[in-house]
Amino acid sequence: MSGPLEPVDSLEPGERSHEATVEAIAAALPQWLPSQRWFAGKDREVTGVRPLTWSTILDGDPLLLHLVVEVEQDDRAEPYQLLVGSRRSEVPDVASSVTIVDVDGATFYEACGDADLTSALLDSMADGTLVDGLHFESEPGAELARGLRAHPITTEQSNTSLVYGSQYILKLFRKLSPGVNKDLLLHRALREVGSQHIAEPLGSISGTLAGEPTTIGMLQRFMTDAVDGWVMATTSVRDLMADPSVAPEELGGDFAGEASRLGAAVADVHADLRTALGTEDADADELERTVQVMLDRLDRVAADVPELAPHVPGLRDAFDAMRHHPVPVEMQYVHGDLHLGQVLRTLGGWLILDFEGEPAASVAERSRLRSALRDVAGMLRSFDYAAQQLLVGRPDDPILTDVAMSWAHRNREAFCDGYAEVAGSDPRDAAVLLRALELDKAVYEVSYEHANRPDWLSVPLASIERIMTEGSS
Ligand SMILES: Nc1ncnc2c1ncn2[C@@H]1O[C@H](COP(=O)(O)OP(=O)(O)O)[C@@H](O)[C@H]1O
Ligand SMILES: [Mg+2]
User: Fold this and answer.
1) What spacing in Å lies between the alpha carbon of 352 and ligand 2's midpoint?
2) What distance in Å separates the CA atoms of residue 29 and residue 46, rounded to the nearest whole number?
3) Which of 58, 150, 258, 388 could covalently link to 162 via disulfide, CB atoms 3.0 to 4.6 Å apart?
């Protein structure tokens, strides 16, 4: 067995088993990583991959290694985790599509799809074992079943999640940062105050990164009765577009009732986060810094995207106006990346998932206390996206555009109504702040779509135009 998780640099060559194998795998990764969906660095070349730490979860044949590598791309170097399997005989089908490298007659492959190997992860959490520097734990009070087989979920995501039987889902965080992951931290805090709107956290896996205990995986209850919020919302829009003559409130698939319940659930979660983790006041200086961040972003994006130019003066005014918002502004832990793809409708109500925060933001930024209105703004933007996504790439159709606009309006209002009812204060009353947050998000979307999906640029641009003309949403 090799030693606990420590930087490879500090170890003598030959001191650890599988070292040569790990080196060979790392050498193959610059080629292999960019083809992986979860790899966040596809925008630039991988200039080097260095093993930071590794552990042997299963030794012999088959072999299961856990690997943390540092991926270098010009000016940045980020740690990613991999599960690597190998077998000398009977290589499973799944291995061929995810082969990383062949070493001495053995095929090494990304092992998340190999159910014979991944069952060891759940069993180790059930047993609460320390395996070669990795801590497998169940959460207090959780009795985990052993021996379940897992399959990776196929929905688009930035991490890799394995579903065990129909009971558990294990998320392996791909890009790591030292410390307890914010997703786990907030799930634990919310469970402690009895939140009804989360999938219960049941276990975790952690290693060591930069000398700090670091979360690499989180196990939660898997909801078999769950429907994705984005799927529900876009189905409702599609139904309406299929027959634009029907009023939305008369349509079977009207979403407004759900939007309102979702608003109530988000308000509940915000209140629970305040109870569990407290609040802080942001003063005028902090407000000023926020305004400055928004203005800077606007300048950067406007320099890249000419289509934004006509809106720049209005956007500037909207951000400047935040300076007149009364201080202090209450800050708290928030979700940080809330949209319809992060919520699940179950028979028991809405659940909120994935509290890790904005993937592009720094860890410090993600962990900061923020106004709850950020999440409200995120969800309001998501309603616009759900409504307009069917218009992308189609010739202009005033009737369908009208349908999309009124669906979005109806559901944004319903969401705010539901939120206000539970929160006791209406997010629309903080109109200047909410408007600025929505517009800031839309400016970010403009830069994202410009870089990744030029066809979609019309979605945030149309929203900016709407918000500007309406005054507020
Ligand atoms: N507890 C759960 N029950 C059922 N499905 C889930 C659960 N947790 C996550 N999912 C599904 O997995 C997807 C990705 O989960 P998420 O936590 O958002 O991961 P990521 O960080 O990769 O975005 C969700 O959109 C949802 O479809
Ligand atoms: Mg997610």
Assistant:
1) 10
2) 9
3) 150
Distances (CA, A) of 452 to 226, 336, 380, 443: 30, 22, 22, 14
Pocket perturbation via mutation, ligand 1, pick of 172, 190, 227, 353 by most ligand atoms within 8 A of CB = 353
Q: Is 181 helix (H, G, I), strand (E, B) or coil?
A: coil
**Averaged over 148-160, what is the pLDDT?**
89
Same domain, 104 and 34: yes
Q: 361 pLDDT exceeds 90?
A: no
Tell me: pLDDT of 1 over 50.
no
Closest residue CA from atom 23 of ligand 1: 157
Q: What is the pLDDT of residues 39-80, one digit of tens each?
A: 988 888 999 999 999 999 999 999 999 999 999 998 899 999
Cα-flanking dihedrals φ and ψ of residue 213, to 5°?
-60, 130
Q: Domain for residue 328, yes or no? A: yes
The pLDDT of 266-295, averaged and rounded, is 95
Cα 402 from Cα 199, distance rounded (Å): 37
Domain-ending residue, one of 221, 256, 282: 221
Does the structure show a pLDDT above 90 at 358?
A: no
Give percent of the chain with pLDDT exceeding 90.
82
For residues 412 and 426, the answer to whether their CB atoms sit within 8 Å is no
pLDDT in the model for residue 392: 94
Range of the domain at 181: 8-221
Predicted confidence (pLDDT) per residue in 419-437, tens digit: 999 999 999 999 999 999 9
Give residue for tokens 């090799």. Answer: 2
**From the CB of 164, is ligand 1 less than 6 Å away?**
no
Q: Is residue 3 part of a domain?
A: no
DSSP state of 15: S
Residue 114 lies in a domain: yes
The secondary structure element, H or E, covering residue 322 is none
Q: Are residues 155 and 246 in the same domain?
A: no
Give the CATH number for residue 380: 3.90.1200.10
Across 222-233, average pLDDT? 97
The tokens for 395 are 């010739």
Surface-to-core class of residue 398, CB atoms within 10 Å of its CB (0-12 exposed, 13-18 middle, 19+ buried): exposed
